[in-house]
Write a structure and sequence with these properties.
This protein has a domain at 19-84. Helices cover 74% and strands 10% of the residues. It has helices spanning 2-26, 44-92; strands at 30-34, 39-43. β1 and β2 (39-43) form a beta hairpin. The protein is elongated, with a radius of gyration of 29 Å.
């Protein structure tokens, strides 16, 4: 099963590499990016690759932030559960008193 997953991902990576190569060979022009204070010129494949990498890093950062929040919430919930369980345990150990 492990080898099947490995072969699958190798095929996917190979197809992506072929698509990138085909895109790069067809689009040989340059693109002009107007920044606020400067204008930069770059080849189209480089510009697309840079935008892809920046988007990937941004998505990874957002996912990491979400994961850290979930870990913190889980830690808080575990602490509250432990306090609640100890409170229930202490209430169970109290002697019964009649309402007479």
């Amino acid at each position: 099963m492990y080898y099947l997953k490995l072969v699958f991902w190798l095929i996917v990576i190979g197809l992506i590499a072929m698509a990138v190569f085909a895109f790069s060979s067809v689009n040989t022009g340059e693109i002009e990016v107007d920044l606020l204070f400067r204008t930069a010129t770059a080849p189209i494949p480089l510009a697309f690759a840079l935008v892809f990498v920046i988007g990937w890093v941004f998505g990874l950062a957002c996912t990491a932030l979400w994961a850290f929040r979930m870990v913190n919430e889980r830690r808080t919930l575990r602490r509250n559960l432990k306090v609640s369980e100890s409170e229930v345990s202490s209430l169970r150990n109290l002697p019964l008193t009649d309402a007479d």
